[in-house]
Amino acid sequence: MxxxxxxxxxxxxxxxHDIVRRYFVVNxxxxxxxxxxxxxxxxxxxxxxxxxxINACLGAAIALGMSGLSSAYVSEAAERKRALGKLExxxxxxxxxxxxxxxxxxxxxxIALVNGAAPLIISLLILIPLxxxxxxxxxxxxxxxxxxxxxxxxxxxxxxFLGRIADISWLRSGLQTLLVxxxxxxxIYLFAGH
Length: 194
Fold this sequence. Notes:
- By secondary structure, the protein is an all-alpha fold.
- It is 85% helix and 0% strand.
- The protein has seven helices and no strands.
- It has helices at 3-14, 17-44, 50-91, 99-126, 128-134, 143-166, 170-192.
């Protein structure tokens, strides 16, 4: 059985497909909004060196990734262990060497990887204009504004993804998540723009 088939099998027997998907969206959204907030904050502040902005955003991205990884692993390992224990109790047998036992050990790792990778990868995508500008590559607009546009685009795409999952209008769903991002930006301008 290939690795992909094995992962699908373990997710199916633990019924955790939706948990993986939910963690990806929730933490990807967190990563995008955090980067958006940081970049707008730097935009409103006195001009900071680009390397300072990159380091601050990179630090936040790594922290988001580690937080997602560790918190999901701890909570999912406990949930999978509990579920396995209940199943063993119902079947009056040891399932540690069964597919259910393997799922109880591997599914928390998979969920933790998704939970940690989503905010990290999305944050790194948002930082691309900053790195390009730092490397001397000319951009058509300020790297901070380009990063904000990428953040808004990714947030819109997460909404589109949610719309497809819920089988509702992808445009409406994308615009709803985009509205949250715009409201976040407006609040930052309101409270930090003085």
